[in-house]
Design brief:
Shape: globular
CATH superfamily: Clavaminate synthase-like
Strand content: 15-25%
CATH architecture: 4-Layer Sandwich
Number of strands: 15
Helix content: 10-25%
Length: 300
Amino acid sequence: MSISFRGLHPHFAAEVSGVDLREARAPAALDRLRAGMDEYAVLVFRDQPFTDAEQLAFAQRLDGALHTKTGISALQKNRLGDEALTDISNVNERGEIQQREDRRREYSLANRLWHTDASFQDPPGRYSMLHARVIPPAGADTEFADMRAAYDALDAAMKARLEGLRVHHSIAYSRQTLGFDFSDAEKAQLQGAVHPLVRTLPRSGRKALYLASHASRIIDWPLPDGRLLLRDLIEHATQRQFVHRHAWRAGDLVIWDNRCTMHRATPFEDGRYQRELRRVTTLDVERRDADASSARGGTG
């Protein structure tokens, strides 16, 4: 395989060519993809005809243990039959487009907020791998924000102010900002997790803001001061110079690093057009190549 990268944005994101990810098994090829993730944080692969099983197998080969405790699992059973395969679609169990009042649709509207996958868990998500199966004729793009470049653009005083701060992340919080109601039993499954506001990426050594719509408060800071600071940081990090917009085509696989990017969905006519994608997210735990092929995470 002759893997090459073409940059899509001045700060991050690249389109990758020369690889069929279903056949990417050699350590050298996987290491090259990991190095590309370290550099670009978002990688776009065109024309990847994955089955569900092939997508799951590739994710494990590349990055090990899989995230299986998604937020929506507190609401209903996964129609795809595997909690490691997140259903990013607007269809129900019968393959019909969801009605506007469908609770699953109301829950998924929060994907239009800037967020990171599984930051509400401990361990959180590391790589997300989203595969496009059915794409509407217009809209439904995904935007990504480079949190490394956003951190670099802060002045020294702000960087010093943020160092050492910890933030509580809750998927219930992000949904409730849009008026979504959870039952007491659902809330009990969605307690959230605490993570540093500034993260250092292990291999590159670069620092990045770790933000999301799930970020409910800064630990040990009074409200509303902490929430205002988080809001201001998200506004800073999502300025146009830090954002790349991906226009989907069927067969695309996009991988992003949740430790140093945020993303959000953009609207489309979801009551008229079908959209089906599958997402696999790996856990941010130490990866062991020798047993990655059999690792499955159930606590993150």
